[in-house]
Amino acid sequence: MRCTRCRGQEACLEVRRHNAAFCEDCFLAFFRDQVTRAIEHHKMFRRDEPVLVAVSGGKDSLALWDVLLDLGYDATGFYIGLGIPGYSEPSREKCEAFAARRHARLIVTDLEADYGLGIAETARRTMRTPCSACGLSKRYLFNKVAQEHGFRVIATGHNLDDEAATLFGNVLRWQTGYLGRQAPVLAEEDGFIRKVKPLYRLAEREMAAYCVLRGIDYIVDECPMSKGAKSLLFKDVLNQLEAVSPGTKQAFLFGFLEKVQPLFAQHEAVTLRPCTQCGQPTTAELCAFCRLRAEVAQPKRRRGRRGPQRAAPSPDGVTGPPAPALAES
Question: Would you say 92 and 110 are in contact if contact means Cβ atoms under 8 Å apart?
């Protein structure tokens, strides 16, 4: 099959939702173009604005960091050690190796060493799902570390598959608060820095292809704590639909962003105030992260005993009414 862009080279990757196939050079150009379109269309950040890139050692975040550097942006990596045995250390090594290769700056925070909140132990002591504790901790640290280092925007590696699966799950449960906040850009407001998703136009398979073509070494294994996560089930369902009808995921997500998301975004504003312990924005006296730290410090709960239902954190750590753990991917 010939490349549909240059017509001269053999294609190395087919992108069925665009009815296209690309050779190596044309695919990399397509990849960069999709990222550029996302950044410019949504005004995610300026050319001269430093960007903090959340990196995990996986293909998505390292591809994002690489393409931003390649496009000439001032991109600094930020890695959070999650304290997951057999997984966190290799993930950190991938990020450090990438930073060394690209002569890029990498900021590292260790949840276990710095806060005593390794995800595996936190889940065991609090009886939370690991993904809930992980998501809450990462959202808190994204904001806190970015502010401490003078960044006004943080970029995450959420891709088309991630965003479509999150949307699917939140529509199934009609989580209107989460639906109102699902967008490529979450604006800076009330103590929260701007969060952006430059990869939302690109599929997961394209991340892997980009890393292979660019020679990026990434951790292949899924996080061992994510087994049984409903987001994986939602991705599988959407993959089956995509196989039968290419473009389903893109049409689902893009249609929502264009026609529906603004309606959900018209939600009642909440009043935020600084956490009395750490100073980060919250609706309660203590933010969700500080409450989690206090919970971990308490003696381990006995199984079978249930206390009052705990308020679930929102995607940015703001406390809201109890809700399922599903939030941003």
Answer: no
Pair type for strands 153-155 and 51-55: parallel
Angle at 225 between CA 168 and CA 87, to 5 degrees: 125
How much of the chain is in helix, strand and coil states, percent to nearest 5?
A: 45, 10, 40
The answer to whether residues 83 and 121 touch, using CB atoms and an 8 Å cutoff, is yes
How far is residue 66's CA from residue 62's CA, in Å, rounded to a whole number? 6
CB 50 within 8 A of CB 57: no
Measured between alpha carbons, how far is 99 from 38 in angstroms, rounded to an integer?
24
Q: What is the pLDDT of residues 191-246, one digit of tens each?
A: 899 999 999 999 999 999 999 999 999 999 888 888 878 889 999 999 999 999 99
The domain segmentation of the chain, as residue ranges, is 42-219+228-270
CATH topology of domain 42-219+228-270: Rossmann fold (3.40.50)
Tokens of 60: 């998505």
> For 111-157, what is each residue's pLDDT tens digit?
989 998 889 888 888 888 888 889 999 999 999 999 999 999 999 99
- Residue among 203, 165, 201 nearest 327 (CA): 165
CA–CA separation, 289 and 328 (whole Å)? 17
* Sheet of 75-81, strand order: 106-110, 75-81, 51-55, 153-155, 194-196, 185-186
DSSP state of 7: S
The candidate with the shortest Cα–Cα distance to 132, out of 119, 143, 145, 141, is 119
Tokens of 235: 């991705």
